[in-house]
Amino acid sequence: MTRTAFFLAGTPGYRFALHHRPDTPVRAALLLLPPWAEELNKMRRVLAHAAQAFAQAGFAVLQLDLLGCGDSSGDFADASWDAWQQDIRLGQEWLREQHPEVPLIAWGVRAGCLLGQDLAWDARLWWQPALQGKTVLQQFLRLRLAAELGQGQRGNTAALLADLASGATVCVAGYGLRQGLSDGLASAQLNAPDQSTLWLEVQTQDAPQLLPASERLLQQWARPERISAQAVQGPQPWATTELEDCPALAQTSLSWLQQQRGQRA
User: Fold this and answer.
1) For residue 20, which of 10, 37, 55, 122 is within the disulfide window of CB 3.0 to 4.6 Å?
2) Beta bridge partners of 189
3) pLDDT tens for each residue of 16-52
């Protein structure tokens, strides 16, 4: 397996990319659709380990820092939902050029599952998908409210949303947030996929089950046969205080990928 770091020309600036290329013939190519804000920082090690495991099994992976994230151009306050969607298209086009004869799989994590839904994919791998962007935004803004409360101030979500609507930059846990990103996220919701999809959730209990909200949505979609949904046991690395790994996510995903490509798990 070979890892190559490089930059792709974005709009504006550049995007940092990391390509994991198998030493064996490529079975499929995955594009990582990353989680939101601090969740991405907490999961970078988990995602790197998973990408390496996928590549060692014959699956190419492209990890891409979106505008304002990681080593890409700009600050978080420069990002917009439209710009992030364009970044996903950029990564998809690059992967298709590099691996034109193999299936292209969207590997979405948390809020990343809401990105690129209008693009053509051959399959989807979802890790703890966010069902509605509005909920992700509200949870994010609560971090600001909690910090204010610790300083003896009492704010509310409505006031923060009003600030965003006025064009102001709202600082949340060190991230500058503007309307172009908040509005796009707030309007995004998870849609029923047309392709074969693995939906994975993580629960800490010994007998993990899908969240009730996930079950309701799957029932609303009539839980088509193309969606395989299950819960695995382990820590939730995007939410833990210390950096944690969850091997079950990568292991279950790899078994599904191998089955998709007609390989022995």
Assistant:
1) 55
2) 132
3) 999 999 999 999 999 999 999 999 999 999 999 999 9
Cα–Cα distance, 205 to 201 (Å, whole number): 12
Can you read off the two tokens belonging to residue 101? 């004869």
pTM exceeds 0.70: yes
Task: Give me Rg for the CA atoms of the chain.
Answer: 18
- Spatial CA neighbour of 38 closest among 131, 142, 167, 187: 142
Within its chain, how far is the Cα of 100 from the centroid? Answer: 23
Helix (H) or strand (E) holding 18: strand 14-21
Nearest to 63 by CA among 35, 101, 25, 38: 35
Q: What is the DSSP string of 115-132?
A: TTTTS--SEEEEES--SB
Q: Tell me the C-alpha distance between 27 and 178, whole Å.
A: 40
Q: What H or E segment, with its residue span, contains residue 79?
A: none
Where exactly are the structural domains of the chain?
2-132+191-260, 134-187
Q: Which of 95, 113, 112 is nearest to 104 (CA)?
A: 95
* The listed CATH number (2.60.40.1080, 3.40.50.1820, 3.30.160.100, 3.40.50.720) that belongs to domain 2-132+191-260: 3.40.50.1820
Distance, in Å, from the CA atom of 4 to the CA atom of 62, rounded to the nearest integer, reads 10
State the sign of the Cα–Cα–Cα–Cα dihedral 20, 36, 227, 210: positive
Q: What backbone torsions phi and psi does residue 192 show, to the nearest 5 degrees?
A: -65, 125
Tokens coding 46: 């988990």
Residue 200 is encoded by which pair of tokens? 């994975």
